[in-house]
Amino acid sequence: MRSGLAALTIATSLLSAPALAEKDELVIGLTQFPANWHPSIEAMASKAYVLSMARRPFTAYDTDWQLTCLLCTELPALEKGTAEYETRPDGGKGIKVTYTINPKAAWGDGKPVTTEDVLFTWTVGKHPQSGYGNFDLFARDIVAIDVKDERTFTIHREKPVCTYREINDFEILPSHLERPVFEADPANYRTRSKYETDTTNPGLWFGPYRITQVEPGSHVVLEPNPTWWGQAPAFKRVIVKTIENTAALEANLLAGQVDMVPGETGLPLDQVLAFEKRHGSRFQVIYKPGLFFEHVELNLDNPALKDLRVRKALLHAIDREAISKQLFDGRQPVAHNEISPLDRVHAPGYATYAYDPALAAKLLDEAGWNQRRAGVRHNAQGERLSLEIMTTAGNRSREVLQQVLQAQWRQAGVDVRIVNEPPRVLFGETLDKRRFKAMALFAWVSAPENIPRTIFHSSMVPTEANNWSGQNYAGYRNPEMDKVLEDLEHVCEPDANRALWAKLQRIYAEDLPNLPLFFRADPYILPPWLDGVVPTGHQDSSTLWIETWKPKG
To answer: What is the pTM of this model?
Structure first.
């Protein structure tokens, strides 16, 4: 690893005046550095943002929230015969769907992307020690894959899933590079993958750009991929700089050391609102409402948080409407559920929790925290109602929000202590291995109509036994929720499907596996000379279409 001074020298040379004058270089500022580089292990917005320049999923939702093919040639369809219901030899009912890989698709080292890569990816994904975030897709949902030729394959699904066309999470791996590493030691693959040990290897990448330099914690350099089959990208170099302190990131933007800050993992809304008032004439500022769910994740193994009355009291003690108006100019609506009203499957009619300090106090009394000493609630055993809340260190907006939550909970008699970590630690270790003691403030982002199986199904709780697969960090377990999540996948008749979505939202609102706060409107700060950046408002990053970004004129 280079010294900090050397890294600064390199970064300065990369940002030379001639390159900027020619506008053949784009410098992007993020607040998080990826915890790792494997596309399917440890979900993190900053990683998805960078990898979307260097990879393409088979399917993704576009800027109009419509499913589209990126690596495949066309979406499978029942009417075209590329999707077909089937009865398996064991009598189970399923569906088989056929995809064809773009015939021009090739890894950055020139090797074609083939069905051998598809089969190997499935092998890794379904291995119990792989550490995959969406382990169920590979191990449960996909029961077989048939290969027709080097480019065409058929996936057999366990059930006739409604979203049969979609395989967004099937992130293909290069068999010729990763197979020897995986087969040598599957249990330690997540740390020994070439994505971790040889990140700049061209053969790992097949997007319009490939990663050519990584300075951990500092910056990533991407350059055009000569094997890319689509529209040629406009920039000779893209530099993604990580500046975790949001005030410092803003200063770098104003100084011209950064060209743009995206909404996916950039500056918080309140900071951009103030920034636009002062400097809006120098930049393009875009606000994109979307499926970004800011919430407080709860560790339900915590003795106090196991009690539903305590969870409800914590939510009743927060004045979310006032926070939205005062901190976010009313642009971030209060979230009453995990499913956004912008999503087609949103179904009103679930319980909501208005600001009600009296009801919060009553619930805490009923839960046994009915003795106050120096303003803090205690139970009959003399234990303090003391909780810890974590978030991404350096994110000014979240740190301010933490302090507001801390103050409002203190009024309810709850002692809340703030303990923050850098994003790469919080997302890379603490959440992934469920090491947070009580609460963590962050955002989930989803695709439209996304079934939240990975975060609510009991089989998706990360444990040492499953090598920390899954994203149910709360440790939430409810058989009724499990059944709804499973039924949503294959009950496709419109009325029945809508009823299941409504039931999911009612169960969520009653159980409160986490505390809903806001649906984010993500702000993008772009230079006036840049064209083609279109925010999606959902899980798939705008960088999936970076080849359309270009200087104006």
So the answer is: 0.82
